[in-house]
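Good morning,

Attaching, inline, the backbone tokens for the sequence recovery test we're adding to the shared suite. The designed sequence is right after.
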């Protein structure tokens, strides 16, 4: 009976008009158009021991782990699933012959994108690349420098900016102020006494460490700090100054965060899937405050939660015109009754925290000396 339900399409109507479930298990493949790029996607749909549906999506042209969907449900010829990592969902309808799924990928704050699949056969199935080899971390005792580092002026008119970690560190279209904020975990408004070119002139940087393994975030920051001293002749001292800041505190009803079960010595996972959607794992409140002030907000963020340890959470909101200025934001969203709340409301509702604008003493970096970068 189980095989009959899984492999046969609707045989007839039940009383009340309900149909036997149509078979959606198997391998499906299709393409998603992202701007001018076609992304090939394979989707494997199966049933668990409890008969619930499971779905995993793979980027066929990139060696990366599969993306597991949640809340996979089927009603007749309709298929629905949630993809939390993308901050969205997928809905599709099975064709009458059972060989195609016609659907849309919906992400909050972005137009729906067509995503249609056809059922794959052993002869037509795309090869799914093996996942990347496990990352070997750099020794915790290592204090790395860049063995090789190139710095060159960015192409004029390049939009946005990029700062990427991993073993090979890369930045695109970044000012020295961006490198300072990344290396020392500060906000640009905490930089005092810098010449104008520190914010105005943009550079592309590429470097490889002189130690084996992938550096942690702290080790990557150490490498950037050494590079700033060596190639930009940076000298500074720290001071205190009263600044307009955002204070991050716990709400009156307590936090709604989930304590992380990941390796406490492992790196934090903080990666925007889009502007206004931040899945976080193995993350301290200091990590969260740092990424918010570096990427999102127009003022420094001071962690006053008193929460120790590491946490897992997802924060989803609708950015306003003051947020993500350096990452392509800076525009007010169009009115949408289905849009997520603003950042301050989302932090309270989803995390049980508060973000308040106050004036408070904050650390500043006073630039004593800096030069344009030396030749590669």
């Amino acid at each position: 009976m189980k095989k009959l339900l899984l492999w046969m399409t609707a045989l007839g109507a039940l009383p009340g008009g309900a149909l036997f479930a149509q078979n959606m298990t198997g391998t499906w493949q299709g393409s998603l158009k992202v701007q001018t790029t076609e992304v090939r996607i394979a989707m494997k749909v199966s049933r668990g021991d409890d008969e619930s549906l499971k779905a995993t999506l793979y980027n066929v042209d990139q060696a990366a782990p599969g993306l597991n969907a949640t809340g996979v449900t089927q009603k007749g010829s309709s298929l629905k699933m949630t993809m939390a990592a993308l901050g969205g969902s997928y809905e599709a309808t099975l064709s009458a012959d059972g060989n195609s799924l016609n659907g849309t990928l919906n992400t909050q704050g972005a137009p729906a994108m067509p995503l249609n699949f056809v059922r794959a056969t052993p002869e037509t199935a795309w090869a799914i690349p093996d996942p990347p080899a496990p990352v070997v971390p750099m020794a915790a005792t290592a204090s790395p420098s860049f063995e090789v580092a190139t710095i060159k002026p960015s192409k004029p008119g390049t939009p946005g900016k990029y700062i990427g970690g991993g073993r090979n560190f890369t930045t695109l279209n970044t000012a020295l102020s961006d490198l300072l904020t990344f290396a020392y975990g500060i906000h640009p408004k905490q930089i005092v006494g810098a010449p104008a070119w520190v914010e105005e002139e943009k550079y592309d940087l590429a470097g490889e460490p002189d130690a084996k393994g992938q550096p942690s975030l702290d080790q990557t920051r150490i490498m950037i700090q050494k590079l700033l001293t060596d190639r930009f002749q940076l000298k500074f001292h720290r001071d205190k100054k009263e600044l307009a800041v955002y204070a991050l505190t716990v709400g009156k009803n307590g936090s709604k965060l989930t304590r992380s079960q990941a390796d406490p010595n492992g790196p934090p996972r903080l990666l925007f899937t889009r502007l206004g959607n931040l899945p976080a794992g193995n993350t301290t409140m200091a990590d969260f405050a740092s990424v918010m002030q570096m990427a999102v907000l127009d003022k420094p963020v001071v962690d006053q939660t008193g929460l120790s340890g590491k946490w897992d959470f997802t924060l989803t909101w609708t950015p306003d015109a003051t947020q993500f200025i350096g990452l392509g934001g800076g525009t007010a969203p169009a009115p949408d009754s289905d849009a997520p709340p603003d950042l301050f409301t989302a932090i309270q509702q989803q995390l049980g925290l508060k973000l308040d604008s106050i004036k408070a003493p904050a650390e500043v970096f006073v630039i004593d000396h800096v030069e344009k970068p030396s030749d590669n």
